[in-house]
Amino acid sequence: MIYEVSVGDRRLRIEVRGGRGAEPPVDVLIDDAVVAAETTEIVRGRQWSVLIAGRSHEVTLLTRDPLRLLVDGHETEASALDERAAAAARGASAGRGGRHELRAPMPGLLKAVHVAEGDIVERDAPLMTLEAMKMENELLAPARGRVVRLAVGAGTKVEGGAMLAVLEDAE
Hints:
Helix content: under 10%
Order of helices and strands: EEEEEEEEHEEEEEEEE
Strand order of the largest sheet: 1-2-3-4-5-6-7-8
Number of strands: 16
Number of helices: 1
CATH architecture of the largest domain: 2-Layer Sandwich
Structural class: mainly beta
CATH topology of the largest domain: Glycoprotein, Type 4 Pilin
Number of domains: 2
Distance between the termini: 38 Å
Strand content: over 45%
Shape: elongated
Radius of gyration: 19 Å
């Protein structure tokens, strides 16, 4: 899973490889550096001991909204978006004009493509169906537009973030 994280004034892109059930340490890609990480929950849902690249940190959740943490005794504001929420936020902020890229929100199998190049689609029209984690996710048009490129076809396995289609504003 990929996260876009802000801690204080620092922004990071964190990819967790392994996840639940993986043997510690789990490989974590922080920006472009791979580090080993282990997490031990001390107080359920409130406090953790985190070992990153051999350095131990104590993290305590102070508030959820806004997200405030106590990290090694220092209070800081933070935010974290998983890859799906980050992609949705980017799509919402893409503006009203121009080119719109549809990217895979997570790795999976593209089960169906509901449009063809040249089609004009309305905002929120179903474009593709992606199967991930045994669930089907309908990928919707981020805006009204003409499908100018389909990068993949049904039956294709895709990685999270992979380009699936490009739409341009329709006149």
